[in-house]
Specification:
Blueprint lengths: L1 H26 L9 E8 L2 E4 L2 E5 L4 E6 L9 E6 L5 H10 L2 E6 L8 H15 L2 E2 L3 E5 L2 H12 L10 H10 L2 E6 L12 E8 L10 E7 L13 H22 L9 E7 L7 H11 L10 E7 L7 E6 L8 H13 L6 E6 L13 H6 L4 E5 L21 H20 L15 H11 L15 H11 L3 E8 L8 E3 L4 E9 L2 H23 L1 H18 L1
Parallel strand pairs: 3-7, 4-5, 5-6, 6-8, 11-12, 11-13, 13-16, 14-15
Antiparallel strand pairs: 1-8, 1-19, 2-3, 2-18, 4-9, 9-19, 10-12, 10-17, 14-16
Helix pairs in contact: 5-13, 6-10, 6-11, 8-10
C-alpha cells in the first residue's frame, strides 16, 4: 500500500517541483541575473538627406550577438571594436556584410597622438561619403565596456583550428557571449524643421547720403560622424566668436555719432552651414528677390568667417580675384598690414572658381558670389577639402585660444582701418581692444553642447535664442528668419534618432543552448521513466533483495 502512496507522491508532486520549485530556487540563488546585463549611452551616426542623396546610416534598431573585429561572419552579428583598431577596409567589409557596428571611442579625444587623429579623420571622411544600410553607433570608453571587449575578443580562441574537435566543442560551450539590443523606435523624418538665421546691423553715416554695406557672416552649426558628438570648436565656433567680438567692438564705436563709420555693418549668423549653407541660400533668396530691395544689394563686400584658430596663416578665399582698387582689394591690403604687427602671421589669397556641377559648395562666400555679390571667406585653412572642418575631434581641448585671439585682432584691426579709412592702430586699442576673457567665455559656451544642424532645427532652440539675445545688446533690428525644407521637393531632410541606450546581456552561444536542451531532455526523460516505472523498479529491487536473503 505504501508503495502505491509513494508512486502517487512521485507522480503528483515531482513534476511541480521540476517545473516550479526548481526555477524559483535558481532565481533566488546568489548569482543575480542583474549582474549579467549592462546599459551604456550610444550615439548614432549621421542620418540625413541632402539634394535627394542619402547620407549616413539608414538603420537604427539592433538586436544581435556581439562579435569582435576578427570573429564575425554573418549579418546576425554586431561588431564591437575600438576606434584605433577599425580600419577603412574593415569598415567597408562590415558595411556590406555585418548586422551592426559599435565603435568604442577614447574618453578623451584630445589625448590621441597625431597618427591616431589622422586615422580618425580618414575614417570619418570615408564613413560620411557613402550611404550605409546597417546601424552604426559610437560609445565612450568605460571599464565595463573594456571588460566586454576583452571577453568578446577572447572568444576568438574558440575558433582556433589548431585545437582538436573535442577541445573546440568544450570551448564553444564554456564561452561567454553578449547580446546587444538598441531599441530607439522607428526612424522617421523629423517634422517642423526650421534652420534659423539671425541678422542685425549697425547703421553707418555718410554726408553724401548713400551708405554702402559690409556684411560679416558666420554659420554657427558643426558637423561630425555623429551629431551628438559634434562640438565644432574651430569649425565653426571660432567664426561665431569672431563675429560676436566684432559686433561688440563696433557697437561701441557706432554708438557715438562722432565715431560712426561710413559703412553699414550687417551681421549674419546662419544656420545649415554644414549642409551646403542652406541658411545663407534662403536668406539671400528672401533679401534679393524682395520687391522693396535689401541693404545687401549695396554691399561693398561680404566677409565670411570659417575655421580661424587652426594656424597662424590667414587665407582669403575668393571665387573671382577682386579688381585693383575695389573694396575687397583694399580690405585685403589692410589685412596684410594688420598682420605685419605679428611676426608669425601671414596673409595670402586663394582663388578657386565655383564649380556649379558640384552638389556641395566649397565655402560659404560662394552662396553670395553666385548672386553676383563681392564675397570672400577668411580661414586659417588653405583648402576647403581639409577634413578638420567636419570631425568629432574638433573639441574645446583641441582649440588654441591664443591663435584665435591673435586672428581676431588682425581681422578687427583691418576692418576698422577699412571702415574709417585710417592708418594702422588709430582706432582699436586701450579700453577698446579685443577681450580674451569674452572670447574664452563664448567658446566655452558654444562647445558645451553639440551643434549639428538637426539638433538646432527646432523653432525655439535655446542656443539660437541666446545668440539672438546677445546680438540684441549690440545691434539694431535683430531678427530671425527660417529656412524650411520644401514639402514636395526638399533640399534637405533630417531624421529623429541621434542617440540611444544599448542594453548588453550576457548570453551563452547557440551551441550551449543546443547542449543544454539535450541535457534537459535526457534529464526529464530519466525522471519520467523513473516515475512511470517506479513500481517495476521497486519490485525488481525487492526481488533482488529477497533472492540474496534466501541464498544466505
Amino acid at each position: 500500500m505504501w508503495i502505491e502512496e509513494a508512486e502517487e507522491l512521485f507522480k503528483g508532486y515531482l513534476p511541480y517541483y521540476v517545473l516550479i520549485v526548481l526555477p524559483i530556487f535558481i532565481i533566488i540563488s546568489p548569482a543575480s541575473p542583474v549582474l549579467a546585463s549592462h546599459e551604456f549611452p550610444v550615439y548614432r551616426m549621421q542620418h540625413f538627406d541632402l539634394h535627394g542623396m542619402s547620407h549616413g546610416s539608414r538603420s537604427a534598431a539592433v538586436n544581435l550577438e556581439a562579435r569582435s573585429l576578427t570573429d564575425w561572419s554573418t549579418s546576425r552579428h554586431c561588431i564591437i571594436v575600438k576606434l584605433q583598431d577599425l580600419s577603412i577596409d574593415h569598415f567597408r567589409n562590415i558595411r556590406q556584410k555585418a548586422g551592426a557596428l559599435l565603435v568604442v571611442l577614447p574618453n578623451d579625444l584630445s589625448k590621441l597622438n597625431a597618427e591616431e587623429k589622422q586615422h580618425l579623420l580618414l575614417l570619418e571622411h570615408d564613413m560620411l561619403s557613402q550611404e550605409i544600410s546597417v546601424p552604426v553607433y559610437f560609445a565612450i570608453w568605460t571599464s565595463q565596456l573594456e571588460t566586454i571587449l576583452d571577453e568578446v575578443s577572447q572568444n576568438v580562441a574558440t575558433n582556433d583550428l589548431s585545437k582538436s574537435a573535442a577541445e573546440a566543442m568544450i570551448s564553444s560551450v564554456a564561452a561567454n557571449g553578449y547580446q546587444f539590443v538598441v531599441s530607439p523606435g522607428t526612424t522617421s523624418v523629423k517634422q517642423d524643421v526650421k534652420l534659423a538665421t539671425i541678422q542685425g546691423h549697425l547703421p553707418g553715416y555718410n554726408q553724401d547720403g548713400k551708405v554702402p554695406t559690409v556684411a560679416i557672416v558666420a554659420h554657427y552649426d558643426s558637423f561630425g560622424v555623429a551629431p551628438n558628438l559634434s562640438f565644432g570648436a574651430d569649425s565653426n565656433g571660432s567664426g561665431v566668436v569672431i563675429l560676436l567680438e566684432l559686433a561688440r567692438l563696433f557697437s561701441t564705436l557706432y554708438s557715438d555719432p562722432k565715431t560712426r563709420g561710413n559703412y553699414n555693418l550687417l551681421f549674419l549668423l546662419t544656420g545649415g552651414g554644414k549642409i551646403n549653407y542652406q541658411g545663407s541660400k534662403k536668406w539671400l533668396e528672401d533679401q534679393l528677390d524682395a520687391l522693396d530691395g535689401s541693404v545687401i544689394q549695396d554691399a561693398s563686400f561680404v566677409m565670411c568667417l570659417d575655421t580661424l584658430s587652426a594656424a597662424d596663416s590667414l587665407y582669403m578665399h575668393v571665387s573671382k580675384p577682386p579688381k585693383e582698387g575695389s573694396p575687397a582689394s583694399l580690405f585685403f591690403k589692410e589685412l596684410k598690414t594688420a598682420a605685419d604687427q605679428f611676426s608669425t602671421v601671414t596673409v595670402d589669397g586663394v582663388h578657386k572658381k565655383i564649380n556649379l556641377a558640384d552638389d556641395i559648395l566649397a565655402w560659404e562666400h560662394e552662396r553670395f558670389s553666385i548672386r553676383r555679390l563681392p564675397a570672400f571667406t577668411l580661414s586659417t585653412l588653405k583648402s576647403h577639402r581639409e577634413m578638420s572642418r567636419g570631425t568629432i575631434l574638433d573639441t574645446r581641448k583641441n582649440l588654441d585660444v591664443n591663435k584665435l585671439v591673435q586672428n581676431v585682432k588682425v581681422i578687427a584691426e583691418a576692418l576698422s582701418n577699412f571702415v574709417y579709412n585710417v592708418s594702422q592702430g588709430e582706432i582699436l586699442g586701450g579700453s577698446l581692444d579685443v577681450d580674451k576673457n569674452y572670447i574664452e567665455a563664448w567658446m566655452d559656451y558654444l562647445t558645451s553642447q553639440p551643434r549639428s544642424p538637426q539638433l538646432l532645427s527646432n523653432k525655439d532652440n535655446a542656443l539660437v535664442t541666446f545668440l539672438k539675445d546677445n546680438l540684441n545688446k549690440y545691434l539694431r533690428d535683430v531678427k530671425v528668419s527660417y529656412a524650411v525644407p520644401d514639402k514636395r521637393d526638399p533640399d534637405f531632410l533630417f531624421y529623429d534618432v541621434t542617440k540611444g541606450t544599448v542594453n548588453v546581456y550576457s548570453v551563452k552561444p547557440a551551441i550551449f543552448d543546443l547542449v543544454l536542451t539535450f541535457a534537459i531532455i535526457v534529464y526529464l526523460g530519466v525522471v519520467y521513466l523513473f516515475v512511470q516505472k517506479f513500481s517495476l523498479l521497486y519490485a525488481t529491487a525487492c526481488s533482488l533483495t529477497s533472492s540474496k536473503i534466501k541464498q544466505n
